[in-house]
Design a protein that fits this description.
The chain is built from 10 helices and 14 strands. It is α/β, with parallel strands linked by helices. Strand 3 and strand 4 form a beta hairpin. Helix 4 packs parallel to helix 5. The two termini are 32 Å apart. The mean pLDDT is 96. It binds NADP nicotinamide-adenine-dinucleotide phosphate. The site of NADP nicotinamide-adenine-dinucleotide phosphate (NAP) has 27 residues, from helix 1 and strand 6.
Length: 291
């Protein structure tokens, strides 16, 4: 099996790379711009906004499975440059879907809970996307091309958490540092998600990729929580003072794009098809990733 992993230098990509290490088969790892190596695998910089470069690198990779997790994944970056976000997130993904289709390769695309507006919560796969941000719109717009690919899977992921492996501190790392140093940290008390541990997401995505499943699948953690609850439970896990977490409300900030209130995912389909990976809770995941 030859696996092509896009976004290998990102938060999720680094966990996938680690999960792939030591398994049979060959891994080709792409980043956006980073070169060097990660986890003993060489990174090849391939800009998804450059169609010719993508087609050339895909031809060289000759993958059986494409794990496509690369994206302009920061909401603020997409807001600042919508045409680029569309080129990378939407057109780049559609091109990979076309190339994978032609090569009869399996394609798994990491989409997001931010395709929903957050008004309802508990979103199931048939619920209609209604993104509020450029990021959400460009990710949602790529989904039909993947679903049209004969062996395509769209995995919509909830908020991911866990220590960074790729050398870039995530929001989670910053929160851990703030808690350990006793520094004040503002967190939303009125934003709900079903947070999913990075190591579970990586193991589950691989299991889905190696299965015969095609179509749309929601992957999220087993508990619906606010960011404040996540912070408080993280503080308890680390035996730190939760008093440094300052609750704030979505209404108190002026983001240029509205923040969805509740993008929790209903993961019943995933739990039914892949029960091994879908029930791992917050504290158990922290123990697995941090000790
Ligand atoms: N993190 C979350 O909570 C979350 C939740 C739901 C869904 N997702 C989805 O999961 C995937 C991974 O997210 P993440 O948090 O791991 O993101 P991340 O840490 O920001 O990593 C993004 C990856 O994409 C690559 N990339 C960026 N721009 C690119 C371009 N123009 N061409 C090719 N590659 C490019 C980056 O490469 P460089 O390192 O070279 O820049 C990096 O490897 C994304 O598709 C995201 O939409 C994430």
């Amino acid at each position: 099996m030859r696996v092509l992993l896009t976004g290998a230098s990102g938060q999720l990509g680094a966990y996938l790379l680690r999960e792939l290490a030591g398994r049979d088969g060959q891994v080709v790892a792409w980043s956006g711009s980073q070169t060097g190596e990660l986890g003993g695998v060489a990174l090849r910089a391939v800009d998804l906004g450059d169609s010719d470069a993508v087609a050339r690198a895909f031809g060289a990779a000759r993958p059986d499975i494409v794990l496509h997790v690369a994206a302009m994944a920061r909401v603020a970056d997409c807001y600042r440059d919508p045409p680029r976000a569309e080129r990378v997130n939407t057109h780049g993904t559609a091109l990979l879907a076309e190339l994978a289709g032609r090569a009869a390769a399996r394609l798994l695309y990491a989409s997001t809970d931010l395709v929903f507006d957050g008004e309802k919560g508990g979103y199931r796969e048939p619920d209609a996307p209604r993104p509020l941000s450029v990021y959400g719109r460009t990710k949602a717009a790529a989904e039909p091309a993947v679903l049209a690919s004969p062996r395509g899977v769209v995995a919509r992921l909830s908020l991911l958490y866990g220590p960074g492996l790729a050398g870039r501190p995530s929001f989670f790392d910053q929160q851990v540092a703030a808690l350990r140093e006793g520094k004040p940290c503002r967190v939303f008390e009125d934003e709900w998600r079903t947070p999913l541990a990075l190591h579970t997401a990586a193991a589950a995505l691989l299991a889905v990729a190696r299965s015969d499943f095609t179509g749309l699948l929601h992957l999220g953690g087993p508990e619906r929580m606010t960011r404040l609850e996540m912070g408080r439970r993280l503080a308890a896990f680390l035996a730190c003072d939760p008093g440094v977490l300052e609750p704030m409300s979505r209404g108190s900030i002026t983001d240029p794009e509205p923040r969805p209130r509740d993008t929790s995912l209903d993961t019943a389909l995933w739990r039914c098809l892949f029960p091994r990976y879908s029930g791992v809770g917050w504290e158990e995941s922290l123990r697995a990733m941090m000790t």
